[in-house]
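Cross-check.
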Amino acid sequence: MTTEPTRPPVADLRMPVELTRRAERKPAPPRRRLWALLAALGLVLVIAEGIWLSKDFWLGQPAVRMALTPVLDRAGYTLERPRLRDAWGVSGLNLSAEAGTGDRVWHLDAVLVNRTAILQPWPVLEVTLRDWQGRLAGRRQLAPAEYLPAGLPADLGPDALVASDRPLRIRVSVQLPLREDGRAAPVEHAEMRPLP
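Predicted model, tokenized:
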């Protein structure tokens, strides 16, 4: 009778097993960290510069001004007022000569209105008179104290900040110099332009 060789139990089988560890993450080299820090700093600077260059836009937003004003007031600072182009509108311009002055004194009646959503100081107005060929007959710049009507309440005075819902009718007078022939230059039309 032949005997079959006996197999050793499975538990007794010892196979060489080699366990490998997962590769550990090496810390980023110091140079890579430095570049990441510089890139983050550059991004912050670009964002800050973008905000600074567009500050007139941001300061022209009522919600931004309402949020910043109390904070800056507590810190003892005042919020800079942006210079907005086309903040003021002139409508209903009417040109008339004063009787008995030989067309030397002209009156311009107009309505001045703040077209922005934030309070604005009164503008300096530039009044230009031209003849029928478009040649300059006279030009004058007027500060608010020179064109605002007398008897206005304090909230509409020359140093006031004016809301957009407060249109004001104004009258500006311009006296033209006499020419060599003793007459004033003829005037055909006028322009009134608020300066920023």
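The chain has a mean pLDDT of 80. The beta strands are 88-97, 105-114, 120-121, 124-130, 136-142, 161-162, 168-175, 189-195. Passed to J.P. for a second look.
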